[in-house]
Amino acid sequence: PTNAAEADVSDVKPTPKSDTSSPGDFHFDRKAAETALQTHGHDEIFQPLRAYIEKPLNDTVPDTIDKGNLNDKRPKIEAGRPAMWYVPLPLRENTPDDLRVFEYGHKLRSCNDMPAKLPVDRGLGKHVAPNVNNRKTFSSGQLDKWEEAKEGTPVQADPFLPWIHDMFPDSSGSVIHFIAQNKRRCNSGKVHWDDIHALEPQVTIMQPVSVKRIDETTAKGLAPSLWSDGKSSDQRYRLAPHEEADADGMFTRFICRFKAMDYSKSPPELITVGETLSTYPYNYEFVNYRKDVGDLSMLTPKGKDNAMFWQAQQRFDCHVPDNGDLRSMIASGEGVLSDGTPSVYVDFVPIRTAPRYGKQMSYFTPDMAGEMIRFPQDSFGWGDLMKSNIVPANGQVVSNISDDHPSRLMKNGFDARLFWGDSHVIPRIEASGRWENLPVCQPPTNNVGKVDKPVEKKHKLAACLWASASFKTRGDAQAVSDTTSRLIEWIEFHLLVGFDHIYVYDNTGAHTDEVSLESTLFPRFLDSEVTRIDWPCQVCNNNIPAHENTGERSSQYAAENSCRARYGPTTEWMASFDTDEYLIPMGRFNSMREVVDDATNSGTQILTFKSTRAAPQRTYMEPFHEHKDCGTVSDPRCLSVQPGHLFAEVYNCDFEAPPKPGWAERAKKQLYRSEYVLAHYVHYATVTQGLVETIEEAKEANHKWDMHFRESRDKDKITDESNQAVMLHTKTTVPEYTTDWKERCAFGFTPGHGKNCRVGFPWPSNDDKGDEKATPEGYGYNCFTNEKLSKVWVPKLREAMEQRNSRVTSNN
Fold first, then answer.
1. How far, in Å, CA of 808 to CA of 360, rounded?
2. Higher model confidence: residue 93 or residue 809?
3. What is d(CA 385, CA 666) in angstroms, rounded to the nearest whole number?
4. Are strands 725-729 and 390-392 parallel, antiparallel or unpaired?
5. pTM tops 0.90, yes or no
6. What does the angle CA 717 – CA 722 – CA 724 come to, to the nearest 5 degrees?
7. CA dihedral for 577, 713, 611, 754, sign (positive or negative)
8. Cβ-based neighbours of 63, under 8 Å, separated by 6 or more
9. Alpha helices (runs of H) in 625-665, residue ranges in sequence order
10. Mean of pLDDT values over 202-223
């Protein structure tokens, strides 16, 4: 099928005629809305989410791309060369009938389904490609992008559509935030090169374009071949260089069309209430520019780009039109009716162009990095791309700027007029690939209804957790089943040491539809202590880091992105941790709140915790044989943790004494101030206020600005592990990892690769310098205990958990 009428989704509901409402006159009556719901029912009012798929751009000369050396994993070595571009960019002469449409109203039925039922993947039991050792590809025909669009996500079929995992309005109702993930990063092996190449637009949408609004008459004069219904007088746009673009169109990528239900009509009608241009929370291209002293490209033809992890998480914003009651109804949540039916929707329409490669094609204004783009070295050999890698489109002559145009703002960098020309009009929305009817639901905070008022910092210290009732480690190496007991203890401990709130992104639904963490968390914990977000999307790649197809754990990274965006505005300090990582206040500090207060007073923005592995102490373990590598009943060769003990006490046995070695920073975790850290990726603050500072802002602040930015140790401090705070990493040691422990843990044993002792024998008084090296049984001492944890926090933790258990039992 090639058009909406023939789409292979049989329940596509016709889009109702959307009549434009005059600016400033939109009126919302909640009572009338609820009456309409009772009279006409949900199905008559609800507008299902759809994806309209547009064919790929015809912007490059076929068979001119150089893939580079796919056997070399280094991103800058033999990175290839982009295909030659047609210039100016050819018009997109689609008609509505050329688009293929997929509807997701059978999955996402109301705001009660958000964000869990957004079309991120196929859902439990329907995945056709494994996320470990996957060699299936769309390009080979083993996977069908149209079937994937129907059952899962349309992004593979149209990669200009963001892979949206979450969306929500801010507390003022003036901005809709979109949380997406860069799907191009799901695979990185050479087997997947064709799919990776097809997904280049996933990076392109992170690069801003500039546009100018034009009227219908001008649009027809510039591009008479574009489709038109001959009736509408909707807003039109053309790609334009910065010096000609509208002020709000200088750095954009999407058209945001807002629609709302008019409940004064019977039946209610969907009307257009305004159209805006998207913005970015920060300029991704500028971030990339400042990340490296040499040349750096947001993408390469070779596709080995996963090392640039700051490009994994995506955020886009749509500003809500200032139209009557629209913003206030979104801010208050009143627009979401009693059964979860939304009253407001947004269409998200990508503006499609070719990607830009390397720093020399950066598209800035002089206030950002000066009048000249600097790239000290041409690492890729692409310095001539804008001269020798272009071909005139349709026989047109590529000419210089005429006297009719204002001079370029930049002396070099991306030449917008060369690549886009003077008459690249963007197609009408109806003829454009897009997300349609994305539901606008409630703001995530309880700071709702406060339009044009500052957001209150509700919490001083909060944590984000991506957790599941069960899961498999990377490479499916082991199935972990102790997650719920770990989760309960971890939350209790961190509430005890001063965290105000824990946000749990529940990924159980990616593994099973029979249970969730709901019953584990509640009523044990109070709503004021814990918030659960249903997050069932699957990790798209769970291979080990050394695998040829490294990929990435998309669900986890998107959850962190969502948590920072949703709850950062109301939280002073926050972090994303795993349930096997314990933050312990040390020295004079009696809580982590005191630690972050002290950091705030000293001007620190990020607290970094080094990470080393702890071992389960032999004292808390018993013989185990119920595994093929663990011997027999009469001769057990493994150990397992005895039931009834706390993880914090069992694993209080770190192989490294404080201060931990420099290599322990590789797997670090961080607490950070949400106002300063704009994006965080598992171990790293990837985007900070310091990084996005422009040269003009630095001049105004009277301090130095360099192209290459490095976070200072004044802003990002490694914690003093003895006198400030330390992280204990209590990763589960499953019994089979202790195989032959008696031999491996014997004093003097020389281990081969992978044969280390995985059982802890604490040094007496933490003294590894004395003469005593082994236990009376002959096992070598090998780890260090945290005395403050064992003497202060473990007793308090046990008492707190007992009190919690008593309260829960009495309430039941």
1. 62
2. 93
3. 36
4. unpaired
5. yes
6. 45
7. positive
8. none
9. 647-650
10. 97
